[in-house]
Amino acid sequence: MRYIIGVDLGGTNVVVATVAEDGSAIYGVRSEPTRAEEGSQAVIARIASLARDSMAEAERVAGVLPGRVAGVGIGAPGPLDRKRGLVLLTPNLGWTDFPLRRLVSDALGGLPATLDNDANCAVYGEWWVGAATGAKILIGITIGTGIGGGIVIDGEIFHGASDVAGEIGHTTIDSTGRRCKCGNYGCLEAYASGPAIAARAVEGVEAGAETRLSEYVGGDLARITAQTVYQAAHDHDEFALEVVRDTAKFLGAGVANLLNIFNPDTFVILGGVTLAGDHLFVPLQAEIKRRAFKPAVEACRVLAGTLPGTAGVFGAAATFRNQTRGKV
User: Model pTM?
Assistant: First the structure.
């Protein structure tokens, strides 16, 4: 059995693990803040350190010797040039035309490496060993620091003509709306990403909304996160519930568009937003039903991901396996 290092690089955290080539086991899951503000070389060093720690744990726990590690699959925010291993642009990390694949490979002694979009990897991980196993046409959306997406058709990631398919977060839901980090206006990411949810909550508190949100953060509104909002919603804070319901409406508009375009049999939602539970999913389902064509709604199951924290590393490992089959 060969093993693959999976790397899930996000704007907030980087997660690394050692994954069996058939997806049957995962060892040495390691996670640290990305801390992109420290510079790209510090991020590369952090990835390499986590990978070495993960391999050491896999050897200690399961006897996985370094020689059985075939390579490293990297999932990173896009858009990307997969063939050249470049991150073309990522506002959340501040990189442009960055040779991530080569630098990670070099930092790990020349270990073969592949690069794919982090959201593609997370969605593919759910298709491979998670909630969406068996889906024929799968659309997935990842909600965290930003919003990404992935499309899996007959077990293969659909990348599009230039590797930017699935950038769901930058579909427009309000052409005159909020400014997005990408420079556009009204992107889904500007309304329903984790930071956007927190920003809408803070705006409401500052405008005098009746809520206990400030109590959760000791009066320091800068500490309000999306998770703070979900916690308050579970505690029946009506304003927090309103923020979550509004998030469901924004997401519902985006999901309905995708159902009408792709007619998938499965739609999976990943990321911290799933912590909102039924407070999000019930109004989300209603909004999708209201907006999408009835046959598309009836054909599609909408699910929460079942691999919190590891979908991305599973998928990154699987994409390495797929891209290098017969080559390494």
Answer: 0.93
